[in-house]
């Protein structure tokens, strides 16, 4: 279960404002980076949904995103579908695949779940890599962006495309929050804390896991389709496990199970990466050291650190101010 | 006069970092040698061997840095990713490695000039040559990806055209194979007279060592694409590589004036022998300098001029095939032998330069 | 209401349940006694579906449920509490009860709206909290309340699914005398329509609430009858009670 | 497919060899990962470090010196890691551990590149093991037989220590519940330190053994990580039988997959992994409990 | 033997013990009684070094208590927690040998198995395959095999069949007669006061009453106010 706190609202508003400002003012490369951040943000939202709120740490979300990208690409290029129906198709297909993976892996836990999802991700990777229709190792080019000229928007313009991504990210965030706050999200929380008891209460645990995994997969599919639109070219590397690993790093770096944190993580990670790779080809070293430093600080990621410092205090102050009109609610996250 | 702005697009991290570094060293040496008074401004970008990253960097070079020309590109995946971008924007690209046949075939572009090699080109002549040595049944092995299939495809084409027979073919999972033992046993059991392979990088090293440890070289000689025993890796392979016969568009032991000068200069600069990657970088720089020397400026001008370039360099007489923009160059068959210090290459034959077939390439002139 | 026919279960070479046949009428309150390791908890696991029997059948309201998974049995009104607390530790007491009630109300898979905010769920939570005296602790996290309170919650969560048959595994173990009395009252106050099967080592409580008593020893039913008969049974004294009844 | 029995024997030996190489690697990981519940993704990096040290040492002092020094050197790295990072991370849950060790992978990768460069390193076989031995009528490389033998010896030694000795029981007790183990007078902290260093040394040993077989390149650690994880997950975490079973499954599936179904070679092991986890969600031989 | 002086301790932000002072005399049995949540288990955990001492002092046999649990154990204190904490990866035999092999003395494997014959039948079972009561016996046996100077028991009778409780009472009486010092926390008032020499009642993190076992049996006021009996 996810709750908005004052701090979360504040950081969210800050992020949105910063993104909007950048989208309107940044130069070409800045826009490119912003689009990358936004797409990664959707992916890590999807991942946080299952990992942070359901304990299902997935190492196949990169592959799901890749599937979304390929589904979109193939539906456009080979099946001749218009981009928007292709986008819908990609999301639906990725969701269905994710649902199946979630259902099959539902019995595994912890590292076993991670590895089971990795296995499915790698199978998808190998399949794409070795399927000539999908371009194999050489990838698939000539992927179109949606035509929104009816609305007077030209998505081939970088700025418009970034704004399009921003809207998609906002939508994805809203969807994630809705799901996590629903009955399904509640059940998911129960399953994460004590699966055996949830079952004994009469819940079909695997269905809950599969449903949430499927919904998360739809978001990953959206991210994939957007990535395909951004680059207008797709290659199997998108499905490699390292993409999933990187997404996981971003989620944890930002703050697992906070939904807002991963957004912070995505922004920080991409900015850092590009900033450093311009300076040194050994940027992995620096990123690695920073990762270690962040974790050694013992906080739940960057945002978790912020929450631990100020979250409670801010909320208490806010609660004091509004004590009269709202009944007290137990405040806890996840 | 404004300098020519060059974007150098290479992997400086990731699995191909060693290749990127060699090409870069060759490129820098080329610029220094042929354009000592500079006139070129180089902007370096790391592709990380990730196509999306490479594409973002390419767009940055084109749109933000406003380069006149781009050089580099090691992996074919990256080439596939950036192809539409450079073609669409009308920016000349000098390919300094990626060998994908299609890049100068069905997906060719007047803006893309290849100064390295194409996968088929390196292997095709070897088919005829091998058959000429009296070998008629061959087992082939290569990693399972587009490049591996094209390399072997080129060889098989040449070999069967000469009347040879393929005893068996195996494609191993790309960069996932630790143990080649199972495949070697299959090759042995296939009844072939020789084995022809394409492997590069780490896989080449593991393969050559494991081939040797099974003691197969004596009864089943090992042939292949020259990347297998590239100077970059041959010292890691050590004596295991002795006696392996391969073909490539360049080896450091080519006995010509141009090559001796290049090898000396490169060794002085880096302390190691130049590999085929180094020469590709070197010749890419030279092509660029020569194109600029014609007085051509701007993207279109340089693009057109690049297609006319021809010179005699370390690898012999090279020119650009106007039908495909692919390089035309001789191929060297060489045996890896034990030298005074480390392994060295003994050239067995120089196969004449032949342009690749057009493979569906329809080349329009460079337009504005 | 709940019936078993010749249930057997072994772990490796050790037979833990040997041909157990029980029959509980609707509204019956039965206490299961037996020495440690007699197979009482195992029997509960077989009834609830957490273990599959080697042979035999479990019937609920006349229907064979032997093949049903845990969740399906629970949805048919079979609920249980655990000997070792099995709670949602990071959540508040209220949320613990709410989750159970939400599943019961069919809100567990809803994609729209918070299940715990539903009026029917809130109603159950309030009612159960009152019943098991958890009202003062509703907003505390489980990890913050004392063991005794957790024991109460353990039963509360089971009750929040509004079961027709409730299995309680040593509800009073580890709680103080005061709270034990509370459980006593709670059991007395439960609606008579609820069928109860209780494992208990607290003899006072056992003899007080039991309509009937079943004694297990080495996985076998060695006694099945009224409390009075149990009290007088030599066998029971020998294997289980010692001189409790004299005390 | 050939009916020559020699061919199948050869392939069986190949499978065994790959299994044992993976076993040497995965046992270190399973000891740390299963017994300490510590997710050490940097295990592959330790293996690469072992290979690099072995290659460097053997260039000047011969293979055997490398084989001895590499595990020691990696154990020393283990000491540093433990003191600097791991000790503080032991209680911080798997997510934090994944992240820290992921960071370590990044760091190790670039450090190897900085120290040894991007170009792969040579590592020669010892002259003693260079030849081939005739096994039931087929010639098989001696070095590969050495790898098989070494794997079996390490397995036997560890099986004895963990299963039959007091130390083994103490380690397992500390893993189950370190607070309670401490209350029984066990110095859990020191025990884990030893276990961690032993695991590191085993990774170093695997690297040294692999060096003459494979190429010693910066990304070798990353490439081996996934196979190693697959091995310990198929086998079941924390158990020695699991590590050996997982290694054998992996080795045989890879080898015979390559022979019998080359088209599926790259997917086969993942399919098997998924299937095993669906049927037995905690692997084939999970640790008791 | 064991002296707690103005002990303060707790979990995270919550402080549970607020200056708790009590003394256990050598060769005697001290029972800590109190309602659920009074802080009895917290006291024991603090003594064992599982929770840090925030203020005050713990002294054992006249000297300050070591800080690390394993040093505390080696100083001669054996502890049976309320959660028993049997090691699931170890068989029953291994659970017992874990302490039997490292602490030698009067208590041997044979001797504890005569005390708890049920364990003898389960020697090769996994630790968590035992029933709740069997686990309690195993935890006790494991502690006795440390041949401790002071035995600390947290709710030893929880979940035990009456007949086992009786046997346990008898064996603890025997231990007491043999001169073993004990500190027990117990909800079973009858059991505790029959065994203990001294009683300390804990309420809200402090000792609110001390006296002899006989005294508290007679004092229904204290019983009612602090124990809810
Ligand atoms: N998973 C298992 N594997 C092997 N043996 C088991 C397992 N679970 C329980 N047992 C054994 O079955 C027997 C019965 O256990 P059970 O937990 O049912 O006892 P119980 O009657 O509930 O005892 P208690 O009153 O002490 O809780 C015990 O001897 C125990 O060792
Ligand atoms: N891990 C913990 N984190 C936070 N608070 C705790 C924790 N464990 C116990 N507490 C709190 O400390 C207080 C004292 O708990 P303690 O376990 O010492 O009580 P007790 O006297 O042993 O009671 P019981 O008879 O129920 O075991 C309780 O209010 C409880 O909520
Ligand atoms: Mg029980
Ligand atoms: Mg307690």
From TrEMBL, chain A:
<keyword id="KW-0472">Membrane</keyword>
<dbReference type="Pfam" id="PF02653">
    <property type="entry name" value="BPD_transp_2"/>
</dbReference>
<dbReference type="InterPro" id="IPR001851">
    <property type="entry name" value="ABC_transp_permease"/>
</dbReference>
<keyword id="KW-0812">Transmembrane</keyword>
<feature type="transmembrane region" description="Helical">
    <location>
        <begin position="111"/>
        <end position="129"/>
    </location>
</feature>
<keyword id="KW-1133">Transmembrane helix</keyword>
<dbReference type="GO" id="GO:0015658">
    <property type="term" value="F:branched-chain amino acid transmembrane transporter activity"/>
</dbReference>
<dbReference type="GO" id="GO:0005886">
    <property type="term" value="C:plasma membrane"/>
</dbReference>
<feature type="transmembrane region" description="Helical">
    <location>
        <begin position="212"/>
        <end position="235"/>
    </location>
</feature>
<protein>
    <submittedName>
        <fullName>Branched-chain amino acid ABC transporter permease</fullName>
    </submittedName>
</protein>
<keyword id="KW-1003">Cell membrane</keyword>
<feature type="transmembrane region" description="Helical">
    <location>
        <begin position="63"/>
        <end position="81"/>
    </location>
</feature>
From TrEMBL, chain C:
<keyword id="KW-0813">Transport</keyword>
<dbReference type="GO" id="GO:0016887">
    <property type="term" value="F:ATP hydrolysis activity"/>
</dbReference>
<dbReference type="InterPro" id="IPR027417">
    <property type="entry name" value="P-loop_NTPase"/>
</dbReference>
<dbReference type="GO" id="GO:0005886">
    <property type="term" value="C:plasma membrane"/>
</dbReference>
<dbReference type="GO" id="GO:0005524">
    <property type="term" value="F:ATP binding"/>
</dbReference>
<dbReference type="InterPro" id="IPR003593">
    <property type="entry name" value="AAA+_ATPase"/>
</dbReference>
<dbReference type="InterPro" id="IPR051120">
    <property type="entry name" value="ABC_AA/LPS_Transport"/>
</dbReference>
<feature type="domain" description="ABC transporter">
    <location>
        <begin position="2"/>
        <end position="243"/>
    </location>
</feature>
<dbReference type="Pfam" id="PF00005">
    <property type="entry name" value="ABC_tran"/>
</dbReference>
<keyword id="KW-0547">Nucleotide-binding</keyword>
<dbReference type="InterPro" id="IPR003439">
    <property type="entry name" value="ABC_transporter-like_ATP-bd"/>
</dbReference>
<keyword id="KW-0067">ATP-binding</keyword>
UniProtKB/TrEMBL annotation, chain D:
<feature type="transmembrane region" description="Helical">
    <location>
        <begin position="220"/>
        <end position="240"/>
    </location>
</feature>
<feature type="transmembrane region" description="Helical">
    <location>
        <begin position="98"/>
        <end position="122"/>
    </location>
</feature>
<dbReference type="GO" id="GO:0022857">
    <property type="term" value="F:transmembrane transporter activity"/>
</dbReference>
<feature type="transmembrane region" description="Helical">
    <location>
        <begin position="70"/>
        <end position="86"/>
    </location>
</feature>
<dbReference type="InterPro" id="IPR001851">
    <property type="entry name" value="ABC_transp_permease"/>
</dbReference>
<feature type="transmembrane region" description="Helical">
    <location>
        <begin position="20"/>
        <end position="39"/>
    </location>
</feature>
<keyword id="KW-0812">Transmembrane</keyword>
<keyword id="KW-0472">Membrane</keyword>
<feature type="transmembrane region" description="Helical">
    <location>
        <begin position="142"/>
        <end position="162"/>
    </location>
</feature>
<comment type="similarity">
    <text>Belongs to the binding-protein-dependent transport system permease family. LivHM subfamily.</text>
</comment>
<dbReference type="InterPro" id="IPR052157">
    <property type="entry name" value="BCAA_transport_permease"/>
</dbReference>
<keyword id="KW-1133">Transmembrane helix</keyword>
UniProtKB/TrEMBL annotation, chain E:
<dbReference type="GO" id="GO:0005524">
    <property type="term" value="F:ATP binding"/>
</dbReference>
<dbReference type="InterPro" id="IPR017871">
    <property type="entry name" value="ABC_transporter-like_CS"/>
</dbReference>
<dbReference type="GO" id="GO:0016887">
    <property type="term" value="F:ATP hydrolysis activity"/>
</dbReference>
<dbReference type="Pfam" id="PF00005">
    <property type="entry name" value="ABC_tran"/>
</dbReference>
<keyword id="KW-0547">Nucleotide-binding</keyword>
<keyword id="KW-0029">Amino-acid transport</keyword>
<protein>
    <submittedName>
        <fullName>ATP-binding cassette domain-containing protein</fullName>
    </submittedName>
</protein>
<dbReference type="InterPro" id="IPR003593">
    <property type="entry name" value="AAA+_ATPase"/>
</dbReference>
<dbReference type="InterPro" id="IPR027417">
    <property type="entry name" value="P-loop_NTPase"/>
</dbReference>
<comment type="similarity">
    <text>Belongs to the ABC transporter superfamily.</text>
</comment>
<feature type="domain" description="ABC transporter">
    <location>
        <begin position="2"/>
        <end position="229"/>
    </location>
</feature>
<dbReference type="InterPro" id="IPR052156">
    <property type="entry name" value="BCAA_Transport_ATP-bd_LivF"/>
</dbReference>
